[in-house]
Design goal:
The chain has 384 residues and is mainly beta. The protein is built from 3 helices and 28 strands. The strands form 7 sheets. It has a 4-stranded antiparallel β-sheet, with no helix packed on it. Strands 5-6-7-8 form a 4-stranded antiparallel β-sheet, with no helix packed on it.
Length: 384
């Protein structure tokens, strides 16, 4: 049994659009349009991070209480923010390899994290919960060991959470009722691989999950009893969503990437994709990003204030972390420390003036030796 599928590739490769050859993300050295350090960061590393590893998701309940999850080696990695510093928190593991990809905290004493673990029989859903003192494994409900991956998780209370991902070629949805996880049927579109990569719940009767069907964006809506597919546009030839954030039932933002290429043989680099929900329809919103860029996470503190995180390729083909800001009128790229070979995968905002973003960076400027990356927004600037 290979651990590779659960451990590597890392999050940005899980979220690429099948068919569009976003393996370009790994670094073929394609040039992009001019991007100044003031627009997207250009600092060089000044030291090492407190721990190696990758952080895939983050959830904050206040400016002094955040939880970030990911993996380090073949083990889960959970870190906690107290308003001053991040620290590693002990977390359990299952099987021969464990990873966490999403986390949601409805309160400081209640968090749920989701991911995948591998044992001799295959890949299985992994859930872990925080009770204010310790993290513990919560039994999951899996349709089988056929390539399960949980990528998104959202909780509105300690008694209701939704997790989404993929199972074989199908979407996977699970729900938490406060005592147990259960698989909830979710529809697929077409015969190619379907996946849900992000989810956001406003209430127990309104959740939005996003992903792709290998070629086009895929959006599904939860009404309290069932999931249903909602029409969403896809610019270009291929497109997909990685994350979604809803500030109300009438205001959601989804982010991802798209390509105008012709498929697996195309050298056309991917571009960022941002779309909004107004309560009745999804529509594409222009985003002035570099031509070779991807978005992996989004958080909206309000309908007029969102932050999206991801990466772009500089002229040398090295990927640099990227942060976009939405002010209800337009998206703009905002400066961030921008360490070379850095990637941001998740972001959480408790207010328009307080956000935390997480990911990884590589000292060698080449993928392979990741260290955790954490950046903070104070309302005027990002810092690491």
């Amino acid at each position: 049994m290979s651990v590779l599928r659960a451990r590597k590739p890392i999050r940005r490769e899980f979220l690429r659009i099948a068919g569009a050859l976003l393996a370009l993300v790994v670094g073929l050295g394609l040039a992009v349009g001019p991007v100044t350090s003031a627009a997207a960061g250009g600092a060089t590393p000044t030291g090492t991070r407190p721990s190696s590893g990758t952080l895939n998701g983050v959830s904050c309940v206040s400016a002094k209480s955040c939880v970030a999850v990911g993996y380090r080696g073949d083990k889960t990695l959970i870190e906690s923010w107290n308003g001053t510093a991040w620290s590693v928190v002990s977390s359990p593991d299952l099987g021969i390899s464990s990873s966490l990809f999403g986390v949601s905290c409805p309160s400081a004493n209640a968090c749920m994290a989701g991911g995948v673990y591998v044992d001799a029989s295959g890949h299985h859903a992994l859930f872990e919960s925080w009770n204010g003192a310790d993290w513990s494994v919560v039994p999951g409900s899996s349709p089988g060991p056929d390539g399960i991956t949980l990528l998104g998780l959202s909780c509105v209370s300690a008694h209701f959470c939704v997790a989404v991902g993929g199972y074989g070629n199908s979407t996977l949805g699970e729900s938490w009722n406060g005592s147990a996880w259960s698989v909830v049927p979710s529809p697929d579109r077409g015969t190619e691989r379907n996946s849900l990569d992000g989810v956001s719940c406003v209430t127990a009767r309104f959740c939005v999950a996003v992903g792709n069907d290998s070629r086009k964006t895929l959006v599904e809506s939860w009404d309290g009893s069932a999931w249903s597919i909602v029409a969403s546009p896809t610019p270009g030839s291929y497109g997909g969503f990685a994350a979604v954030s809803c500030s109300s039932t009438r205001s959601c933002v989804a982010v991802g990437n798209f390509s105008t290429g012709t498929g697996s043989g195309s050298s056309t680099p991917p571009g960022t994709l941002t779309e909004s929900w107004d309560g009745s329809a999804w529509s594409v919103v222009a985003n002035p990003n570099p031509s070779h860029a991807l978005l992996f996470g989004v958080a909206c503190a309000a309908s007029k204030s969102c932050k999206a995180v991801g990466e772009y390729a500089d002229r040398a083909g090295v990927f640099v972390s990227m942060i976009d800001s939405w002010n209800r009128t337009a998206w703009s790229v905002v400066p961030n420390p921008g360490l070379p070979a850095s990637y941001l995968y998740g972001v959480s905002c408790v207010a328009t003036t307080r956000c935390e973003a997480v990911g990884e960076y590589d000292n060698s400027a080449h993928a392979g030796s990741g260290r955790v990356l954490e950046e903070s927004w104070n309302g005027s600037a990002w810092s690491d």
